[in-house]
C-alpha cells in the first residue's frame, strides 16, 4: 500500500512539474511574440507589423523595423500586414498609406549612455525606429494625423523603396 501511495505521489509531482514547465514555456513563447526581435522593444498595439519571412511569421514593433527585415531577406517577405493606427486593426500593408517623420514615435525613448573613459552622459543618436513611420488604412486619416503631428504622407511603394536604397 505504501509503495502504491508513493508511486501515486511521485506521478502527481511529475505531472505538476510537466504542467508547470508547459505553462512556463507557453508564457515564454507569448512574451517572445510581444517583443520586437530587432530592437527588443514591445510590439505596440497601434504600430505592430507582421510578415512571413523565410516561412515563419515575424512580428515587429513598427514599419521601420519591418524594413530592416525586408533588407535582410532581400525582399523575400510575404503577406505583410500593417496595423491601422486609427483603429488598431490589421490591414494588408499594400493597402495602407504611411506618415513618415511625425512627432509621434511609440517605439522611441531617449537612451542615455555613459562614456567608458570620460564617464559623461550622452544621448544615443541612432535609433532603428526613427524617423517614425505610422500606417493608416485610410488616406484621410493619414492626412489628418500629419496635419496634427507633422510628417509626410507616403505610399506603400515609396516606403518600400527605402529598403532598396540602403
Q: Shape from CA axes?
A: globular
Strand order of the largest sheet: 2-1-3-4
Uncertain segments are: 8-32
Please provide the ordered H/E string of secondary-structure elements: HEEHEEEEEEHEH
- The helicity comes to 25-40%
How many structural domains can be distinguished in the coordinates?
1
Bin the strand percentage.
15-25%
Structural class given helices, strands, pairing?
Answer: alpha+beta
How is this structure best described in words?
There is one protein chain. With 166 residues, the chain is an alpha+beta fold. The chain has one domain (34-165). It has helices at 2-33, 63-72, 139-149, 156-165, and strands spanning 49-53, 56-60, 77-83, 90-92, 97-100, 112-114, 121-123, 133-136, 152-155. The strands form three sheets. The protein has a four-stranded antiparallel β-sheet. Strand 1 (49-53) and strand 2 (56-60) form a beta hairpin. It starts with a helix and ends with a helix. 23% of the residues are buried.
What keywords describe this structure?
single chain, 166 residues, alpha+beta, four-stranded antiparallel sheet, three-stranded antiparallel sheet, 4 helices, globular
Amino acid at each position: 500500500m505504501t509503495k502504491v501511495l508513493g508511486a501515486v505521489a511521485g506521478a502527481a509531482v511529475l505531472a505538476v512539474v510537466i504542467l508547470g514547465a508547459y505553462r512556463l514555456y507557453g508564457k515564454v513563447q507569448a512574451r517572445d511574440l510581444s517583443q520586437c526581435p530587432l530592437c527588443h522593444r514591445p510590439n505596440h498595439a497601434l504600430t505592430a507589423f507582421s510578415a512571413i519571412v523565410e516561412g515563419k511569421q515575424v512580428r515587429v514593433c513598427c514599419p521601420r523595423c519591418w524594413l530592416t527585415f525586408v533588407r535582410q531577406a532581400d525582399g523575400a517577405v510575404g503577406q505583410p500586414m500593417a496595423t491601422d493606427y486609427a483603429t488598431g486593426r490589421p490591414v494588408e500593408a499594400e493597402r495602407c498609406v504611411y506618415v513618415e517623420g511625425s512627432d509621434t514615435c511609440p517605439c522611441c525613448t531617449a537612451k542615455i549612455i555613459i562614456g567608458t573613459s570620460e564617464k559623461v552622459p550622452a544621448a544615443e543618436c541612432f535609433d532603428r525606429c526613427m524617423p517614425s513611420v505610422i500606417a493608416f488604412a485610410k488616406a484621410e486619416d493619414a492626412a489628418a494625423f500629419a496635419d496634427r503631428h507633422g510628417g509626410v504622407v507616403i505610399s506603400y511603394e515609396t516606403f518600400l523603396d527605402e529598403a532598396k536604397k540602403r
